């Protein structure tokens, strides 16, 4: 009951209080949009880790493919942006099909193999000049349209789009986790062999989680392409699209659903608004120290730490 | 008497009011600097930022009326942070923005500036799509065409007829390589093209292919510092029979001469200045003096570009303030009217904000120094040709 109430309060703040109070502050709104982009990838990355049991270093491949598919569809075929974004997700899902052979690998071997795929996609984007524009990239990618008299290409509009996308993904994550598949996937974490003995098709389930994670990351990549309006291979397939989300997910608590999102928003905003004001050049040092402290004192992340703190207060009260 | 006194005072005040309306008061203007000071573009961003600081110092001492104060924000070499930086600068009420490095950062940052109606001037992005947008607020003082003219101009002057181009697949280098190839092919040159991934460090297979298959008279290199070092090391090992090694940006610099004395002799690259720096104009001498005073070192090309773009912007701001059009789009209008000799040559902007006169110069590493060898009107040394580092 209390959890439901806090979710409603969070939604009210996210959809009501923030646009109303900070909507005119373009700077803070652009930081929030960037943080939610990181948060969206962090969520998809954590889903693959928690449900699929796979640690990926190659999510930049899905991000880049989704971005390119959506940008090209809107630029060359005139596809409406909403459909193009969904097809960007589908493009990333299709890209993940070629990664199926590496599902046989585990741990660092899987992580490194998927990283190699990201590099392959980057080379394709660079060399396939006729379609992708090669290293020169794509510019003037269409912005979000005006609908119902509201300009979605503005800061508040972009914020509402990315917020809705990541919350829908969080809901999907929750539904998958609560389903029979989710139970089977969690059982696989303890013993994959044991779950296979009782008839669970572990390879199929892992593949499905890879598809879901790839789709989510692709849609986020597509959003970013229409938000930034410029795309080139180095940027679209940059390693930062996986390292920053991993940091955010671990900071927030990658075992929880909202942890990666809260981690991304917290890390990004604290770093840009507080640490950057204190040390304009080299503020990442403080962020690094904070991350080390978090891992040492609360390895499960910020959200579990906050929950434990709330429980302690209730017990004391 | 009392009435006459009152009338006189009244008329004097009225005259003062009229005069006051005609002449704008001296003011300090805030200018935003959005620039990468950390991340992958930190070195080039810092170089440009030094030039911007020199421009502030010189403008404030020489304008005599207005002064400029800059607010610098590090965009961390990231597009999303470049947008945030522009928006933060706008909220701090800057009148224009100078800076930016890398087309992928400049494109979204200048887009954000355009939406906010802020003029944005740069020398850090040569991608043609930046000017193709046709923004009235966007200006840049250099472009790929200027580098292409310099490279092709030198090749013409050296009277060679075949070349192999080794180029990084990065946006700026790939575009330049293809443009140079196109022009040379049109002129009847035999041109071999060899692209490489920016991640590679061993250039021996490419150089070997050039040596055995292309057999060109010169090797052209379109890359960055690490690429040049790799290419020249491979060439020094394999010793292809070429007459010259010619590169572009970040090659004919004092730093490269000092760091790689065995690889640089007789190598060509774009250079605005000879080394040791020689300035013939009063403007140039003042720039070098101020740069030396502020940073205790010789000015480089990054500083020179940052200085020129910022000084042009500050002058436009001052003119717009004097015309009382500062907040009515006057800065962009004044920038568009620019027609001035600068340290990078004559600057005039077309309707898309591109400098139509930009032509780079070519320098050659000569015994630890850098001589400007092309064009002849800017040259202070003769090209040593044929000559290679091995």
Word description of this protein:
The complex is a heterodimer of chains A (317) and B (390). In chain A, strands 1-4 form a two-stranded antiparallel sheet. Chain A is mainly α and 317 residues long. Chain A is built from 15 helices and four strands. Chain A is globular and about 60 Å long. Chain A has a domain at 27-231. Chain B is α/β, with parallel strands linked by helices. Chain B folds into two domains: 28-143 and 281-348, Rossmann fold (3-Layer(aba) Sandwich); 145-276 and 361-374, 3-Layer(aba) Sandwich (Rossmann fold). Helices cover 45% and strands 18% of the residues of chain B. Chain B contains 13 helices and 14 strands. Chain B has a five-stranded parallel beta sheet with strand order 2-1-3-4-5, with helices on both faces. A four-stranded parallel beta sheet of chain B has the order 7-6-8-9, with helices on both faces. Chain B has a three-stranded antiparallel beta sheet with strand order 10-13-14. In chain B, helix 6 (144-158) packs across helix 7 (171-186). The longest helix of chain B is centred in the C-terminal third of the chain and has 22 residues, at 301-322. Chain B is globular. The N and C termini of chain B lie far apart (95 Å). In chain B, 54% of the residues are buried. Mean pLDDT of chain B is 91; it is low at 11-23. Chain A binds chain B through residues 25-27, 29-31, 33-34, 37, 123, 126-127, 134-137, 139-140, 228-230, 232, 234-235, 240, 272, 276, 280-282, 284, and chain B through 37-38, 72-74, 78-81, 83-84, 87-88, 90-91, 103-104, 107-108, 111-112, 116, 127-130, 132-133, 169-171, 173-175, 197-198.
């Amino acid at each position: 009951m209390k959890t439901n109430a806090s979710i409603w309060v969070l939604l009210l703040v996210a959809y009501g209080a923030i646009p109303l109070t900070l909507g005119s502050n373009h700077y803070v709104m652009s930081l929030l949009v960037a943080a939610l982009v990181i948060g969206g990838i962090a969520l998809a990355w954590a889903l693959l880790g928690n449900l699929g049991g796979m640690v990926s270093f190659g999510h930049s491949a899905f991000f880049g493919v989704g971005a390119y598919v959506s940008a090209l569809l809107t630029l060359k075929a005139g596809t409406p942006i909403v459909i193009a974004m969904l097809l960007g997700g589908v493009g990333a899902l299709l890209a993940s099909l070629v990664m199926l052979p590496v599902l046989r690998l585990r741990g660092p071997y899987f992580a490194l193999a998927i990283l190699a795929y990201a590099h392959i996609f980057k080379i394709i984007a660079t060399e396939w000049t006729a379609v992708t524009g090669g290293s020169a990239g794509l510019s003037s990618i269409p912005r979000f349209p005006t609908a119902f008299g509201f300009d979605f290409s503005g800061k508040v509009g972009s914020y509402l789009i990315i917020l809705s996308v990541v919350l829908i993904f969080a809901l999907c994550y929750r539904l998958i986790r609560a389903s029979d598949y989710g139970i089977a996937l969690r059982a696989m974490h303890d013993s994959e062999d044991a779950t296979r003995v009782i008839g669970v098709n572990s390879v199929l389930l892992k593949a499905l989680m890879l598809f879901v994670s790839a789709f989510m990351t692709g849609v986020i990549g597509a959003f970013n392409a229409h938000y930034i309006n410029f795309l080139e291979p180095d940027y679209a397939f940059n390693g930062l699209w996986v390292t920053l989300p991993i940091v955010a997910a671990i900071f927030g608590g990658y075992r929880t659903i909202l942890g990666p999102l809260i981690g991304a928003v917290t890390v990004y905003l604290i770093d840009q608004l507080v640490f950057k004001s204190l040390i304009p050049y080299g503020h990442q040092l403080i962020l690094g120290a904070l991350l080390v402290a978090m891992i040492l004192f609360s390895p499960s992340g910020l959200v579990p730490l906050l929950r434990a703190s709330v429980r302690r207060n209730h017990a004391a009260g | 008497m009392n009435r006459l006194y009152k009338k006189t005072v009244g008329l004097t005040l009225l005259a003062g009011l009229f005069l006051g309306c005609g002449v704008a008061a001296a003011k300090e203007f805030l200018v935003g600097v959005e620039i990468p000071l950390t991340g992958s573009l930190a070195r080039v961003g810092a170089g440009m930022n030094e030039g911007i600081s020199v421009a502030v110092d010189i403008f404030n001492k020489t304008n005599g009326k207005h002064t400029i104060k800059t607010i610098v924000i590090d965009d961390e070499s990231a597009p999303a942070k470049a947008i945030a930086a522009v928006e933060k600068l706008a909220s701090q009420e800057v009148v224009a923005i100078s800076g930016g490095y890398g087309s992928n950062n400049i494109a979204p940052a200048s887009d954000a500036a355009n939406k906010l109606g802020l003029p944005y001037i740069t020398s850090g992005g040569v991608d043609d799509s930046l000017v193709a947008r046709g923004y009235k607020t966007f200006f840049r003082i250099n472009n790929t065409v200027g580098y292409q003219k310099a490279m092709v101009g030198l090749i013409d002057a050296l009277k060679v007829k075949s070349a192999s181009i080794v180029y990084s697949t990065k946006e700026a280098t790939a575009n330049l390589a293809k443009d140079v190839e196109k022009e040379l092919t049109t002129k009847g040159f035999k041109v071999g093209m060899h692209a490489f991934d920016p991640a590679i460090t061993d250039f021996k297979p490419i150089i070997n292919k050039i040596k055995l298959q292309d057999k060109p008279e010169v090797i052209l290199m379109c890359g960055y510092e690490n690429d040049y070092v790799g290419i020249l090391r491979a060439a020094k090992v394999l010793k292809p029979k070429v007459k010259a090694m010619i590169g572009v940006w970040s090659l004919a610099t004092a730093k490269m001469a000092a760091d790689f004395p065995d690889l640089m002799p007789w190598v060509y690259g774009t250079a605005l200045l000879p080394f040791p720096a020689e300035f013939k104009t009063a403007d140039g001498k003042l720039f070098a003096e101020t740069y030396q005073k502020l940073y205790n070192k010789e000015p480089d090309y990054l500083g020179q570009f940052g200085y020129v773009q910022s000084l042009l912007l500050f002058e436009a701001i001052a003119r717009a303030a004097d015309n009382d059009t500062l907040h009515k789009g006057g800065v962009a209008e004044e920038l568009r009217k620019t027609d001035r000799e600068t340290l990078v040559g004559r600057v005039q902007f077309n309707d898309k904000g591109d400098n139509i006169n930009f032509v780079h110069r070519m320098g050659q590493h000569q015994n630890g120094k850098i001589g400007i060898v092309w064009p002849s009107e800017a040259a202070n040394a003769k090209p040593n040709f044929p000559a290679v580092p091995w």
